Amino acid sequence: MIQRTVLIKFAETTPREQLLEVVDRFKTLQHKIEGIVEIQAGLNKSEKSKEYQVVLMVRFENQQAVDAYTVHAEHQAVVAFIGEAGRLDSIGADIDI
Fold it and tell me: Which Gene3D superfamilies does UniProt cross-reference here (predicted)?
């Protein structure tokens, strides 16, 4: 199993409602893309790295599921919305679990 964690930094002008919409849209991917075991997402509550407002975590069955997810149209639609919402930067990492 593989876990991907992504921290996303948005413009200061991005309203909280849009950040919550990013979280909601990301969570719906679990029911739309095969190979996803679990998705968790929310707003960052930590004082550390607080400039990254949204935290996304997804667990995949295997590397093939990760590869399919990356190019899947539903995922790409969420990626596009994140850009429209004012994404400035992101940090991502995958680990075996």
Answer: 3.30.70.100
Q: Which pLDDT score, from 0 to 100, does residue 2 have? A: 98
CATH-assigned architecture of domain 1-43+72-97: 2-Layer Sandwich (3.30)
Q: How far apart are CA 84 and CA 97, in angstroms?
A: 32
pTM for this entry: 0.92
Report which of 36, 31, 38 is spatially closest to residue 64, judged by C-alpha positions. 36
Q: What is the DSSP letter of 89?
A: E
Domain locations along the chain: 1-43+72-97
Q: What is the pLDDT of residue 47?
A: 79
Listed as ranges, residues in the chain with pLDDT below 50 are: none
